[in-house]
Amino acid sequence: MNHQYLSIMGLIVAEAANATKEHWAATALLGATLALAGYAGRALHENLKARWNAQKNVRDRLQKLSLLLAESNSLFHNQNYKARELLKMLQQRLGGNIPAYADFDDAFYQLYPAFTPDDRHVHSLIRSLTMTSLRRVNTDISEWLSVNTDLRQDGSRKPLFGDLATQLAQLGRHLNEWHSKYHALFLQDETDHKHCLVYLDSERRDGTGFPKQLEPALARVLSSES
Asked: What are the pLDDT digits (tens) for 141-153?
């Protein structure tokens, strides 16, 4: 009787020990699985966060360019309106005595000696816009281009970036030539105030024109990144 009892108790203890080992193993496996899932979840979260930050960084940089281009466009049209008004004033007063000209600046340079005080006033406003606001915003855009070289060259992420990179490359050439012509017309002889405009894409064809598809290409990329 005692031997049978002890055998039964031994079996119970052994089974309990096995059950404890299996429970521990299952618990350990579950813990490891949860830990791995947690690590994978954190890694996925960090990856998504990094991608979102990178996308936001690109969007923020492009939005800054968009604001600079909008300011440049507003200044250009304001100045161009004043130039047309000045040419109209000269045509009304001088009639057929206006010589052939390649662009506004060429016409105003030739006619400067015949300017009235009113002509000189409008001319000075046009010249001031070139020397202050337009030069500043063109310098800001040039600095943006020098910092954001990846957006000027990288079209690998999406086809839209390739279109934008092409337009930005032309913008870089345009601004380099603009600054060079500005230096030649405005800085080499600071006593000569007859020049008032820096145009490249005129009948004279002095250089690379402003990229006409830049702003549509930029708008498409911004829309895709929002």
From this structure: 999 999 999 887 7
